[in-house]
Amino acid sequence: MPALSLSRRQALVVAGALAIVLVLAGKLLSGGSGHRAAVFPLPRAAPPAPPPQLVVDVAGAVHRPGLYRLPQGARIADALARAGGATAKAAVDGVNLAAPLADGEQVIVPLRTAEGGAAVAPAGSSPGASSGPVSLSTATAEQLDALPGIGPVTAEKIVDYRTEHGAFHSVEELDAISGIGPAKLDQLQGLVVP
């Protein structure tokens, strides 16, 4: 094969032409027009929502009374533990430690009386309170059954409704329970609170 002899000028022209061909080939392979492809960020996953919490007021014969945030499904025993536990003068047997908590509930641990029994807690303070309005969100079926016009079957329906839908926000929610109509609602006004 004969040897190619190129002048310096010819070599530069060939090198320039090869560079242009390589640049054009690179653009052609990478998308053509020289414009960069639009880059869209990947959607970020939303951070997981924090689990819903209850806010309860723990008062009475406990070491650290106050407001506490507890997870859904917490019991009165959990609230007492967060409040530092009951004091030595507490009548814990007057509190149902296994009762579920409702948002906005006040739990009062009564003091023991001189006779060794539990002092009566203020009205509406806890599920075991014996006077004042009955809390629809915390009362037991027995406490509800004691209300006028509410029998054991309707009391169980109220407890079932509360279990399914959560704490009552108004007394008027009772209207959603079969067996309770406007007449019974009027009869219960002043005797029950959400």
Description:
It is a single chain. The chain has 194 residues and is an alpha/beta fold. The protein folds into 2 domains: 51-127; 133-194, Orthogonal Bundle (DNA polymerase, domain 1), CATH 1.10.150. 29% of the residues lie in helices and 11% in strands. It is built from 5 helices and 5 strands. The strands form 2 sheets. It has a 3-stranded mixed beta sheet with strand order 2-1-3, covered by helices on one side. The chain has a two-stranded parallel ribbon with strand order 4-5. Strand 1 (53-60) and strand 2 (66-71) form a beta hairpin. The longest helix is centred in the N-terminal third of the chain and has 23 residues, at 8-30.
Helix content: 25-40%
By oligomeric state, this entry counts as single chain
Taken in chain order, the helices and strands follow as HEEHEEHHHE
- Using only C-alpha atoms, the radius of gyration works out to 37 Å
Indicate the low-confidence ranges by residue numbers.
117-131
Q: Largest beta sheet, briefly?
A: 3 strands, mixed
List the domain count as a whole number: 2
Q: Which of globular, elongated, flat, extended, rod-shaped describes the shape?
A: elongated
Q: Number of helical segments? A: 5
The fraction of residues in strands falls at 5-15%
Mean pLDDT: 79
**Distance N terminus to C terminus?**
104 Å
Category from helices, strands and their pairing: alpha/beta
Strand order of the largest sheet: 2-1-3
* Count of distinct strands: 5
Summarize the structure.
The protein is an alpha/beta fold. It is built from five helices and five strands. The protein folds into two domains: 77 residues; 62 residues, Orthogonal Bundle (DNA polymerase, domain 1), CATH 1.10.150.320.
